[in-house]
Amino acid sequence: MITVHHLENSRSQRVLWLLEELGLAYTVKRYARDPATMLAPRELRAVHPLGKSPVIEAEGRVVAETGAIVEFLTARAGGALTPAPDTPERDRYTYFLHYAEGSAMPPLLLKLVFSRLAPGSPALLRPLVRAVAAKVMGGFVDPELRRHAAYWEAELAERPYFCGSDFTVADIMMSFPLEAFSARGTGAGPRVTEWLARLHARPAYKRALERGGPYAYA
Asked: Are 170 and 97 in contact (CB under 8 A)?
């Protein structure tokens, strides 16, 4: 049995969804974020030293990091939802599997961090912090996000899913950054909006929401 240590409103929702798509049996241990800091609770450090989610336990092993978990689970499902080797679709699959966390998430995280700097600052410093945050957001973060958003639109103009005509695990990996981008009101384009609607209509996606509980980005 696979145990998913699931943090609310986090990347671990993708792991639940993948397990539903693969038809693998699993249990869920839920964790709530600290309401003040929005960080994961200390209890997760008992599972993995970094105290992050997602993390799973399976076959006597602890596996952390979404990409590593995805490779672990798809291997045990015989390569389901992955394109055939030595094809252009497989090349795109490998790229987007890593792009989702390596390139798409950092500017989204920066936007989240800088948007919270001023409200959490001492009152006297708040105007200065707000000005610095606005400078960074306007000069770097928002232009970077617009660049990524244009890239997603262009890719989805060529094909219905990120790897080609078929839904793959790469779409699951891409779901969280694009859901977060869309939910934060940063202007998701029409093709991303249509792609998200197709993903959200999948029965396995809906079952994962039932297992994982409330999810702000659905």
From this structure: yes
Please give the residue that has the higher pLDDT: either 14 or 128. 14
Q: Is the dihedral of CA 39, 40, 45, 49 positive or negative?
A: negative
Name the strand (E) or helix (H) holding 38. none
Q: Is the pLDDT of residue 91 over 70?
A: yes
Q: What is the mean pLDDT of the chain?
A: 93
| Global pTM value | 0.92
Look at residue 96 and give its three-state secondary structure: helix
Look at residues 188, 195, 204, 203 and name the one whose alpha carbon lies nearest to residue 96: 195
Peptide bond into 214 cis (omega under 30): no
Q: Which residue from 100, 192, 92, 105 is spatially nearest to 141, judged by alpha carbons?
A: 105
